[in-house]
Amino acid sequence: MTQNFKNHARFVPLFHFVLSLMILAFLLISAWNLIRSPGLPSAMGVLLGLILVLVFYYARGFPLAVQDRLIRLEMRLRLRETLPAELQSRIPDLTPEQLIGLRFAGDGELAGLVQRVLDGDLSECQEIKKAIQDWQADDYRC
Question: Is 25 part of any domain?
Answer without folding.
Answer: yes
